[in-house]
Amino acid sequence: MELEGKTAIVTGASSGIGAATVRKLRAAGVRVAGGARRVARIEADLALPLDVTDEESCAAFVTRAASELGGVDILFNNAGLALGRYPFWESNPDDEATVLHTNVDGVLRMTRICLPHIRDQGHIVFMGSVAGRQAYQNAASYVAAKFGLRGFVYALREDLLGRPIRITTVDAGLVESEFSLVRFRGDEDAAKAVYAGVEPVTPEEIADCVLFALTRPLHVNIDEIVIKALAQSSGARVVRREK
Ligand code: NAP
């Protein structure tokens, strides 16, 4: 499947996996509308403000993106985050709301608003996580959110069956991006420790997975790609090199 001349919407385009995927899509000849709150950081054909937790923001983003791109072939639902690493009895309503509204409601909302604009032979790609396949400790809201996302994608696949729209989820383990910096609220030492003594997957390697799924023949649907560092077997289990 050639991507040249296609159009795409990428959420969370200001950093990490989203930014890397925008670069690879554009290199493949795709015109991309990227959305995020930090719009000044987005390098796309169209860089637009987007808060996936806000219905009006999503509606305005999609209306403008679809009209300027002239329709949508690819939606990459990538925006997401985790907050904190603590046992659930230390949780609080604000963190729970932010994590669930961003990773779950935000994805449902963007998918619902984009669907009428997605052309036949379109493709929706979701950024999942190994946290949505296997629980790990001190991450209950994020685990719940990514399991929720996986349930939504399975249900959507049933609803869309028979329509020419493909669906893929990429479930990743450790990826070195700003994810841990956000999770630890700007604490650089805590963020660095997540990747200490291990070679994590890069955002570019996740973008390669996205492009692999997009470029299969149209009768082939890659349902799920699970990608982890070789030194990682689950969200909780990582073998680190001695210093
Ligand atoms: P990142 O570098 O922190 O990027 C996250 C992106 O999400 C940013 O562009 C951020 O943009 C955007 N975002 C967050 N909240 C948003 C909101 N309310 N509205 C719009 N955009 C929002 O982290 P990343 O690793 O690339 O994360 C991308 C996705 O991969 C997430 O869904 C994450 O759960 C998933 N993932 C990451 C890892 C990992 O280890 N890094 C592993 C598995 C899955 P703004 O802040 O500018 O809005």
Shape: globular
Count of distinct strands: 7
| Residues in helix, % | 25-40%
Q: What's the total helix number?
A: 7
Rg, Cα atoms, Å: 17 Å
Mean pLDDT: 97
The unique ligands bound to this protein are: NADP nicotinamide-adenine-dinucleotide phosphate
Query: N- to C-terminal separation?
Result: 45 Å
> Looking at this structure, what is the CATH superfamily?
NAD(P)-binding Rossmann-like Domain
Structural class: alpha/beta
- Order the strands across the largest sheet as they lie in space: 3-2-1-4-5-6-7
Secondary-structure element sequence? EHEEHEHEHEHHHE
> So, CATH architecture?
3-Layer(aba) Sandwich
Number of domains: 1
CATH class descriptor name: Alpha Beta
User: Sheet bearing the most strands, described?
Assistant: 7 strands, parallel
Enumerate the spans where pLDDT stays under 50 for 5 or more consecutive residues. Answer: none
3D architecture notes:
It is a single chain. With 243 residues, the protein is α/β, with parallel strands linked by helices. The protein has a single domain (7-227), classed as Rossmann fold (3-Layer(aba) Sandwich). It has helices at residues 16-27, 55-69, 93-114, 140-160, 179-183, 188-194, 203-214; strands spanning 7-11, 31-36, 46-49, 72-77, 118-129, 165-172, 224-227. α3 (93-114) runs parallel beside α4 (140-160). The model has no long low-confidence stretch (mean pLDDT 97). NADP nicotinamide-adenine-dinucleotide phosphate (NAP) binds next to α1, β5 and α5.
